[in-house]
Amino acid sequence: YLYALKNRGSKYGIDRMRLLVEALGHPERQFPVIHVAGTNGKGSVCAMLEALYRDNGYRTGFFSSPHLVHLGERAQVNRQILSEAEIVRYTEQLKPIAAELGRDDPELHPTFFEFVAAMAFQRFATEAVDIGIIETGLGGRLDATNVVDPALSIITTISLDHTEMLGDTLAAIAGEKAGIIKAGKPVLMGKLPAEAEAVVRQVAEERGCPFYALTDRFPEGSTLPCTNLAGSFQRWNAALAVYATEILAEQFLLQSTQALSHVDWAGRWQVLEVDGRQLILDASHNPEGVAALEENLAKLVKAEGREPIMIAGTLGEDRARSLMSVVGRYADELYLVAAQQERATPTAFLKSCLERDAVETDLTALFPTPGRCAIGEPGDTVVLTGSLYLIGEVLERIQGRAKLAGSGLQDKV
């Protein structure tokens, strides 16, 4: 059933989701929400907020997308994912409601993403979370998650990505992300380019919102919170999470921020050991993310005194160009792959962006069986970067997970 929903495609818009949550009795209104949008960093900020609140004794709901291996990762309570049995149970509850909504007009039948978002809201309400931390899927204004009425809205960063849907200027994209801002509700803004910042400030002012800017709380040169997640940008994300908890301190008082030192956020410079090799998985799918990747690669090369073996693949030609410009300079050996996703960039195009040798291959050749890595030698470092979907497929392969569990149920965008 879920595959069938996925194969209908993803339809950008919010009207269907409004009808769905209304039919469900508005589960998304039964718990306070922090709603997070942004080009980069929104998943990391959500993971940090979840860790902070859970570590301080609050029961957390965490909605993020896409998942890496299990669909149930999208609807976590206290970081416990939905089991397959629970997914079946929620699906059976939602199916007749979805069918009724689409009875007269098939366009009103919920999409896969909307269905899963509703499943998360249902779970959070049923399990009585103290706070729900909700990451937008795409954009903000028309994203299915934008049915929530947040205690706090956060805009993390703005850069050019998904331009075919969100607009091709920073101001246009900022306008879409700022669509999550609700009248009279507090807004927290991360470090944004001036053009984007002006839009977010204007929307917040028009809607009468208390407004907070990260750089007011943490000016350039100030000491940022530390986190176990690698990269200077993650310290800015940690600062955003800390400031958010301070804004909401009257409702949710924290005794400690120690949880920032053990945030669990897979696929973001995640270090594993596979077949005697150090395998680093890092999602870097747009120019802003690639700049962060370069920072981490430079530190890695300096620490190890040699360049790593690299595997790379992404979605879209613009993303491919920016990613190849970095991996081409830092890889000792370079392997190009395509995720099993219809928007995956062909390896031939990836290779055309390079001025060096690279091997076009696939993940089955690189990771032939669970726990095996067919490139490099024990003691080598292998970095896999690019699309989050690709990282999910690698995790499936090295863990020996069934295909049905993961990337086959990813969103088309």
Structure, explained:
- The strands form 2 sheets. A 7-stranded mixed sheet has the order 3-2-4-1-5-6-7, with helices on both faces.
- Helix 4 packs across helix 5.
- The longest helix is centred in the first third of the chain and has 18 residues.
- It is built from 15 helices and 13 strands.
- It is of the alpha/beta class.
Q: Layout of helices and strands, plus pairs?
A:
Blueprint: H1 2-7, H2 15-23, E1 33-37, H3 42-55, E2 60-63, E3 75-77, H4 84-101, H5 112-126, E4 131-135, E5 152-155, H6 163-166, H7 170-177, E6 187-189, H8 194-206, E7 211-213, H9 214-217, H10 232-247, E8 270-274, E9 277-283, H11 287-304, E10 309-313, H12 317-330, E11 334-336, H13 347-352, E12 359-360, H14 363-366, E13 381-386, H15 388-399
Parallel strand pairs: 1-4, 1-5, 2-4, 5-6, 6-7, 9-13, 10-11, 10-13, 11-12
Antiparallel strand pairs: 2-3, 8-9
Helix pairs in contact: 3-10, 4-5, 7-8, 11-12
Spatial shape = globular
Question: CA-to-CA gap between the ends?
Answer: 20 Å
Q: Give the number of helices.
A: 15
**What's the gyration radius in Å?**
21 Å
Structural class: alpha/beta
* Amount of helix: 25-40%
Oligomer description: single chain
Mean pLDDT: 91
Give the topology string: H per helix, E per strand: HHEHEEHHEEHHEHEHHEEHEHEHEHEH
Secondary structure tally: strands: 13
User: What's the story with the biggest beta sheet?
Assistant: 7 strands, mixed
Strand order of the largest sheet: 3-2-4-1-5-6-7
Please state roughly what percent of the residues sit in beta strands, choosing from under 5%, 5-15%, 15-25%, 25-35%, 35-45% or over 45%: 5-15%
Q: Low-confidence segments, ≥5 residues, pLDDT <50?
A: none
